[in-house]
């Protein structure tokens, strides 16, 4: 059609005859260009919304999560169409990288048994917490991050940072978790690795006082604390990679914006039915309340003859 337009001074019909193109076909092509078909218009609208969802996620969502967000919004679109439109728009998810372990073991410490045995599931909140330490590099020096994650909802229930990777850091994050969640004594398992911070007298004493069962996987084995290791992979992929932090305060702010501003309230996960951790917990409590109300509803006595 471009060739015909370039030689329109010769007349459209003569050029079409030379090219053996029916005039009806040519004018249909022209109309399609000037008046895009409904599917093309719809693709353009969907691409605009897909790009917005992708941008709102910080560029981390792939087609499954983008499709889930659109579905939640009531947009009727197939998974394959989302994949195609994202590919055409050059939108892709960020692939994770394997992290580095920073576990340092105290050979003289008393170790807790492994109560989890790689089964990182729970039937309700505050039954299993996993925890670990990792390091964030800044130009000012290392910033150590301690976080506690609930196995039920994968929510980060508490986190804290420090320039020192010591027992006080993990104790502070535990204190924040206990204050915000108030788990029932005797029902919660606290799972960590054999790092010296987690075998310290300070931490083990605090766990005993709170009625929390201590559990430990083996040192240097990411599978024994896989749920905590997975959190580091997610944070470093989606929040830290490609960024240079001049100060520890700058890195701490970035972690706050990601964990409290995005991960907990908004980052949907396939294992949670494409809900965010907070949404998943809210749904659990709402379902629990509805079940209790049904059970408390008085029943009519059976009619007797």
TrEMBL record:
It comes from Streptomyces salyersiae. Residues 121-285 form the Integrase catalytic domain. This is IS3 family transposase. It comes from the Bacteria. It holds the Pfam family rve_2. Involved in the transposition of the insertion sequence.
